[in-house]
Amino acid sequence: MKLYKSIVSALCLAGMMVSCGTSTTQQSVEAAAASVAEIDTGKVVIETIMARRSVRQYKARPVGRDTVQMLLECGINAPNGMNKQPWAVRVIDNPDYINGVTEVFKQVNPKMAADPGFKNMFRNAPTVIFVANDPVASSSPVDCGLLGENIMIAAKALGLGTCCLGSSAAFIQNTPQAAEYLEKLDLPKGYKLLFCIAVGYPDESPAAKDRDTSKAKFID
Ligand SMILES: Cc1cc2nc3c(=O)[nH]c(=O)nc-3n(C[C@H](O)[C@H](O)[C@H](O)COP(=O)(O)O)c2cc1C
Q1: Which of 1, 17, 133, 156 has a CA between 20 and 30 Å from the CA of residue 85?
Q2: 214 burial class (0-12, 13-18, 19+ CB within 10 angstroms)?
Q3: Given a cut of 70, is residue 9 above it in pLDDT?
Q4: Which residues line ligand 1 (CB under 6 A)?
């Protein structure tokens, strides 16, 4: 909140410099305008981060592959230990795969599938991004987490909803009946599915869940 307030104050100051004629030269007006633009961009990024929520209901509308490609590029540009990139990312938008593995899920978890809102095991999303890590690289769970967050923030910026799903990935990784679907992901030898990301056009706008601000503090 403090950071947000400083940004807004800086924005107002820059705006005043331009409007009150404090900047006498064209150059300083341009510099002020550039810093306003920079602050505006920063504000949009922060608002996007703060507005992201896990979405668990999606419209049937498919997500274009160009859009998903953009998400993947944002993902793989995440910081990662020694740039080892110890991840394998797979996109599934094929309804045969999604519905097929969901049938297996329904047989194993009949109670969960009985929910009238249940359409598929990925919170009803039309596209799923699977993220696997190389357990040999000790930083890989952190690296994959950062990749996932980049994808989810980029998706939010593009009007898409997402939900990080640990349970769906664990199901595919650990359920013998789902082995053929794990194999179809064509992961490198030794890699393990860590989580997947449901992606789609949101059909709900969930409120933010409470956050415990005392978990993050300054130490003097
Ligand atoms: C590693 C991880 C695993 C998660 N697994 C699931 C899951 O299996 N099912 C689900 O509905 N949500 C899952 N979530 C979403 C969390 O429940 C959600 O992020 C959390 O409740 C905070 O809500 P928000 O994302 O709307 O801020 C997972 C999130 C993370 C980071």
Answers
A1: 156
A2: exposed
A3: no
A4: 53-54, 56, 163-167, 195, 206, 209
